[in-house]
Amino acid sequence: MFEPAERLKNVKVSASAAMTRKVRELRAQGVKIVGLSSGEPDFKSPPNAIEAAHQAALAGDTKYPPQDGQLALKKAVQKKFKRDNNLDYALDEIMISNGSKQIMFGATMASVNPGDEVIIPAPGWISYADQVKLCGGIPVSVSCPENNQFRLRAADLDAAITPSTKWVVLNFPNNPTGAVCTREEMKELADVLMQHPHVLVMADEIYEHLVYDGVKMHSIAEVEPKLKDRTLTVNGASKAYAMTGWRVGYAGGPKAMIAAMMNMQGQATAGVSTIGQAAVLAALEGPQDLIQSHRDDYENRRNLVVGWLREAKGITCHKPEGAFYVFPNIAGCIGKTTPGGKKLETDTDFVTALLEERHVATVQGTAYGMSPYFRISYATDIESLREGCKRIQEFCADLR
Hints:
Blueprint lengths: L14 H14 L5 E2 L11 H12 L12 H15 L8 E4 L2 H12 L5 E6 L3 H9 L3 E6 L10 H7 L4 E6 L12 H12 L5 E5 L15 H4 L7 E6 L12 E4 L2 H14 L5 H12 L3 H22 L14 E2 L20 H12 L1 E2 L1 E2 L9 E4 L4 H16 L3
Parallel strand pairs: 1-10, 3-4, 3-5, 5-6, 6-7
Antiparallel strand pairs: 2-8, 7-8, 9-12, 11-12
Helix pairs in contact: 2-10, 3-10, 4-5, 4-9, 6-7, 11-13
């Protein structure tokens, strides 16, 4: 009889993935769900990327790829880091992986020993903590409260660092809050890290291009170049280029770190789909105007969603500076009862009842480490957003 390994005991299926699966099941049963739970752009992949993949397949580029990535793509990533982040990486300091998620998993597996601590700002992406647990490490949550625009405070980071700290994860623009640190705030975090030379930095910059209102995103290794030799800069094509299904991520970091991660990747999956690499190469080297077009669309959607949610009884909603999520506070709904008789004790109760009674899929804030909130993705069409927010308003108005 099969029994899961001990390492899986404290690792749960991602709440967002679980919600997405639930939505698919309900839709298969004919239920009309408004899906606002998935962090996936609704735009099509760039036409030049699709054509490049097609031509690569026709040309016979379908053999095993180099484990660290095809040379042409690594050179394109090298140019991207210089162009967008003012970071210079040698080719042996760059790797290509099966999405940015595998990069972070590989880095964690290649470096974290049992008992090592990894500092994770909260709210934060669900998988950070679970990846640490799989390695026998200890995730250390540091609160980024709404009264600080969900940003990490330097003093809080400093207080969390111990001799056992192996990594600090920085994800700004942030999932789920959309928070973006200013250059000054990033410099303050860098100053703290400079006082703790044993701490590595995992900079998850997957949402770097999705910033609004003239806000700028800043790479910590560029803000403080002295941190570059212990920083892993993580990125990929999924969010900016709407290429989630191609599964191509990339990273720049110290040569020894990249070599260890490649050893780990070689044991797990080896190289990345040649067709996907050809597509991402075209995306990185082709016209970049679609990024601005997508950003403009997202900014408009954000403005609409924040406005609609602020009209909902019992909800307050911070306007995020980046990514494509809003993270509303539902303290005014907790303790109330739905028309279906469900008492809302937690934000998990809230999103469950919202799905069951109003057929709107969202994700509870508890999954990201902060309550009572819930996450809405506005990476979908305006009509779905309009209908979903209308149902949320009605749901909240009917609470007693």
